[in-house]
Amino acid sequence: MRDQNLWYKNAIIYQIYPRSFYDSNGDGYGDFNGIIQKLDYLTTLGVDCIWLMPMYKSPLKDDGYDISDFCSVYEPFGTVEDLRRLFAEVHQRGMRVITDLVLNHCSDQHFWFQEARKDRNSKYRDYFVWNDTDKKFPETRIIFVDSQESNWTWDAVAGQYYWHRFYPSQPDLNYDNPEVREAMKNVMRYWLDMGIDGFRADAVPYLFEREGTINENLPETHAYLKELRKMMDTEYPGTVMLCEANQWPEDVREYFGDGDEFQLGFHFPLMPRIFMSIGKQDAGSLVKIMQATPEIPENCQWCTFLRNHDELTLEMVTEEDRQWMWNFYAPDPAMRMNLGIRRRLYPLLENDRAKIGLAYSLMFTIPGSPVLYYGDEIGMGDDITQFDRNGVRTPMQWDDSQNGGFSDADTTYLPVITDSVYGYRHVNVQKQEKDGASNLNWLRNLIRIRKSSPALGYGGISWITTGDRVPVLVYKRATADDCVIVFHNLTGDPQEISVDLTQGSYQDLIVPSIRYEGGAGKTVKLAPRQFLWLRKE
Ligand code: GLC
Asked: Pairing mode, if any, of strands 160-163 and 152-155?
């Protein structure tokens, strides 16, 4: 038996936006009770852990990532009691649940900020970062480049500028203040006491500021994060933290520490290279970034993902590749946002099962716990006419009734997708449940197969095909007693590739009736855009 405490090393994580999932009381907003009603759906998909996006009290200027009270919930979602019940129901089904932990900032509506701006002598003044000019920290980049010109905003009430890495409605907290550091630990304790299994920690590179630096990934930030981990290990053993640091692999590596900081970290640079590999029919840059990815401690794991609630970020690619990605995947300027692309998985890959198959197969076979974004399992579309990133946050499509079965209300928080390809009449859970070949059942099957192989979950990776051009990508995943050779034909043509396979027989995990014999210089034939997982018997 593997150590149960290492469950996160091989988990299927499913990201839920509470507002979008299921509305149980007909007010047009998804809610906690709605999620409870749909938990069995998630168990049949093979989900091990739910990542619940912000459900805290918030004016929703950044969809809940602007928190006005860290220890209460956004009312339309339900009560803290409902949430407690949701956690219990998740656990009853053998799943786990992590919630977003937004450390870097709060809402400008938060009591701390309201007090701070009113009175220079208030103890809360020092909870935030103030300055008399907007010239301090000139080396710091702007993240929301489409809408922000500065990380400083003048506050007339305060008579000073305050620091914010995101929207002006999200003032950064001052982590040099020990009270802030302690207050946020107590926020964590509050939720951990309620029985959650950990956090997806939002925007962690930006906690501390130091003059003359870019204010990202500072040693002080790592030291504080280690303190949080220590607190969790001591007071809540077995709970985990997942790191959102949109950084290069060597910088994300630091967030794992010596196995004493984060257990999990998103692999941001890999994600756009999955799309590049499929679009360019060449995995050269994917192999390169993976080879440049340092080893991580034994008790840690990457998280792989294809899409999430944000734009498909192109921060971790070269300028040339960014232009290529925009031209290829976001030809309409309305599809572009900040340094990214605000579209969902299926429309990005033209609703083409072969391309989507490559994407999922890459995500499932490159080391990491895969994180799925709600709706992508059925192939939901997007609505680029919506503000900001809302076009990828539309209501979940359950059936072909009004509002896609999401809600009985006359109007929902965002309109449900109705277009002729991705609209709820065509793309919905109920319809796909009945169809063995549907997107949903296809993915369920793929998840089941992935779970059947310890090598795909826990194994190391060795690259068999490398170089500048990799139209057919081959690698090996192996643990001591399991071995899978993974093939991806990224091209639209049939391919043959010659590989050395250790003697013995191999089973095709996707089509189990097919077997291959090992040996030196074996020719493996691949159909256009086929992926093949061969398990040594
Ligand atoms: C993270 C979230 C994003 C949010 C930002 C500020 O990047 O994923 O949605 O806007 O942090 O909290």
From this structure: antiparallel
